[in-house]
Task: structure prediction
Amino acid sequence: MLKGLLLSGGLIALWAVGQAIVFHVAAPRKVFSSMLRSFAPTVPIYLLLYYVTPAHLGFLPTGFVGMDWRLGLGNGLMVYVLLFLTAGLFYSHADRSITIRLLIELARAPQQRLTLAEMRAVCGVEVLMQDRLDIMVRNGFLASRGDRFFLTPKGWIGSGVGRVARRVLRIRAL
Amino acid sequence: MKGLALAALAFALLVAGSVSALHFHRGGKEFKVFLAAFAGSVGLYAGAFWLVPADLGFVPVSWQETSPVVDFWNGLLLLALVFHGYWSFCYFACVSPSMSVLVDLRERGREGMSPGEALAMQGSDEPVNLIFQRRLPKLIRGGYVIEEAGAYRLLSRGGRVAALGSFLKKLINAQVGA
Result:
C-alpha cells in the first residue's frame, strides 16, 4: 500500500508543478479541461511505474511490503484520482470564492475599508453574475440565444443534480 | 483493507448524519454541522480501527496491509479527501449563484432567462443583495471584518485569509481582483 501512496504522491506533486506552469504560460480559458488533459496521460504513467518498480521501491523496509499488489495498485490509483480532484477543488476555492474575493478587495482598499456601495462596485452581484454566466456558456452548461440563456443537455444534468441536492440538504442561501 | 473498509463505513455514516442534522439545523452555521459530522466520523473510524481485528473477520492475509500505521493513515487520508469533496459539493449545489441559475432555468424550461433576471435572483435591486447578505454577517461574526461608521474594515484575521487567497490566485495565474 505504501508503494502506491508514494508513487501517487510523487506524481501528483510533479503534475501540480507542471499544471502551475501551464496556468502561467498558456492561461487556459477552460481551466478544468486543461487540468484534465494534462492529468489523464499521467494515469498510465502511474500504472507503468507501479508495474516496473520493485515492491520496496529500493528503500522501503520489509514491514511495509507484502500486500497483494493489485490492492496496493488500486488504492494508490484511488488516492491519485482523489488528489487530482482535490487540486481542482482548491483551484475553484481560490479562483471562484466570493468570500475570498471580498476579503482581497478589502485588503486592497484604502485603510482596508469599503462601504457597501464600494463593495458592490468591485465585487457586487452585477460583476460576479456576468462573469459566472460567461463561464457557464464557455463550459457548455448554457447556450446564449439573443439576449437570453438556455440550458444545454449538460446544464440540464447539472441542474438536476443541484435540484436534488437542495431538496436533500436544505442549506439555504440565507 | 481494514482502513479502506472502515473509512467507507465512516463516510457513509458521515453523510447520513450530516443530512439528518441539516434537516433540523436552523442557525445558519451549516459549516458546524459538517465539521461535527467529520469529527464524529474520524472518532468512529479511529475507535473501530482499534477495536476491530485486522482481517475484519473475512479478509484474506494477502489483502491485509502489513503495517497497521500505513493502513490507518491511508484510510484517514481517503476519508478526509472524500469528505472535502462532499463538503464542497454540498455548498456549491446549495449556495452557488451559478447553480441557482441552472436550477431556475430548469424550471423555466423553454422560456430561458435574461441577464437581468439572473441578477434579480440574487436580489440585485435590494440595498444588500444576497451575495452580501449571506457573507457579511458571517465575516463579522467570525472576526474577519468589523462594521464601523457605515463601512466595513478588514481585521487581521481577514487579512491573513486575503493574503493566502492572493497568493493562491498568483500561483494559478488568476486575476487577483477577480
Observations:
- Strands of chain B lie at 145-148, 151-154.
